[in-house]
Amino acid sequence: MITSKRLQDRLIDGLIALFLLTLGISTLLPLINTLAISLSERAAVSAGMVKLTPVGFNLTAYEYILQDMKFWRAFGISVLRVVLGGLLNFTLAVLTAFPLSRSEKAFPGRNIFIWMFVFGMILNVGIVPWYLTIAQYKLIDTIWALVLPGAVPIWNVIILMNFFRNIPKELDEAARIDGASPWQLLWHIYLPTSLPALATITLFSIVGHWNSFFDGLILMNNPDNYPLQTYIQQLVIADRPILHGGQAQLMVKLSNATLNAAKLFVAMIPILIIYPFLQRYFVKGIMLGAVKE
Amino acid sequence: MQKYSDRLSYYVMILPGLVLLIAFTFVPLFYSVIAFQKFNPALGIQNSPWVGLENFLYIFRVRDAQQVFFNTVFIAVMKIILLELAAITFALLLNDLRFLRVKRAVQTMVYLPHFLSWVILAGILRTILARNGLLNDFLGLFGIGPVYFLGRPDVFPWVIILSDVWKEFGFEAILYLAALTAIDPTLYEVAELDGANRFQKMWYISVPGILPTIVLVASLSLGNILNAGFDQIFNLYSPIVYSTGDILDTYVYRVGLIQGQYSIGTAVGLLKTVVSLILIGISYWIAGKFANYRIF
């Protein structure tokens, strides 16, 4: 009896494992299909023959992308916005969260300020007034349009503020007795003890900046100023031929589908590179937001 | 004295964030008054004629807007329900899995799409969902199709709902997995002694254990029922499927920015802003009352 029950249990274990593995792999199939298309020859792609493995393996699409200045220009703008936007997000999150983590007594007005920020976070201003405001500031077609409007990441501020408030008060008081200023306190005690939370919010910012396309689309009039996601959106989704550039000459060997698939894949690479870190920190980070009492 | 110089430091620290908050959130809110004008960019806010509630009355008259509102709520609500069901089922099964390596491998695979943008995923989906794409090949094995997934108004909302489930179910499950690991293991041991089988343990211990999390997610979702997913729909829809696929955000974008009817676009946006604000307020209140949740 016992053995047959154990056997049955093992069997169910195996079935669950098999089911979940199949589910996991199916989740990735669309991505694998895109990779296969990017590595296949024109005729096979046009005939819809490419499924999960490349047909007529070649790297022509990638060789082409290497020389495609429009692509790299957009890639560069994306890197710039990630670096600049990430730095701004980080600095502002720390500078805003720290005073908000103080008590109302130590920092009069703290309660009003926090409500202003929370109100700002849940307030979803319409896209039209948002656009008109940024146009009014003359930021259209500048990199600042991509990094300033979202420069204060309020959700990250709240995560960080909650984290700061859980740091033992004793550390704080000891430094106070030694005459440390708030700046020294922040720099020498709060930042070093908050590294996991800081890593998490930085990764949030990087992914957010890398992935956004819509601000690039409406705030950049000149396609030369598009970040990579906007460039790809216009090329692959909206199919705007302006952006193809010298692509036509290569069409003998390459199909648009192959080239677009390769571009999609190259745009994914930065995320794939930081994915191990994302997995480690995001999983914790998603729990950081809530206050436990 | 230290107290005053400390306070000064705090004000200096918060100043940049406060200025940006005002400049990019509160100033646009002020700009929303053009919802009550017939706004003309050449005249600006000061000189454009005021029209009272005319823009709002217009919105309630046009059939488009009602359809768009319905589409938005339908897609958003179906997304929430199916996404949470998928995430809960997945979390329960994964929690039951005893092979740690398989567990970790599966997690690595299913979390990935969450981090990719809808531009990339839409590019991929357009290929997969094409007439001779991967999905139609698969359905062909069962004699179904080919289906024009992105060109049929009756199918399109489901493509949106299910592709969102595909992208997010793994990541959404993280919350439930965390709640599951917090369940006292002795509960399972006692149940086992009483002769409970695997599924009874799941139903009578795991599910009640994650019930607070389910309540929390459900109440917070309330604030999102007017957000059907702009990035996703914008990158997958086309005029053929506007009847079922056009949502508030895409409508505001087309009417307000593309057609240049700034005041109409702002009016729709403002309605959405106000309703969302109320819904989020209610959802935080429910989450606080029934799940002990507070954001700060």
Tally the helices of chain A: what do you get? Answer: 14
Query: How many domains in all of chain A?
Result: 1
Return the CATH architecture of chain A.
Orthogonal Bundle
The biggest beta sheet of chain A is recorded as: none
Helix and strand string of chain B, N-terminal first?
A: HHHHHHHHHHHHHH
Mean pLDDT figure of chain B: 92
Biggest chain pair interface: A-B, 98 and 95 residues
Description:
The complex is a heterodimer of chains A (293) and B (296). Chain A is mainly α and 293 residues long. Chain A contains 14 helices and no strands. Chain A is flat and about 75 Å long. Chain A starts with a helix and ends in a 5-residue tail after the last helix. Chain B has 296 residues and is mostly helical. Chain B has 2 domains: 1-27; 60-291, MetI-like fold, CATH 1.10.3720.10. Chain B is 73% helix and 0% strand. In chain B, helix 3 (54-61) packs across helix 14 (262-291). The model of chain B has no long low-confidence stretch (mean pLDDT 92). Chains A and B meet through helix 1, helix 4, helix 5, helix 6 and helix 8 of A and helix 1, helix 4, helix 5, helix 6 and helix 8 of B.
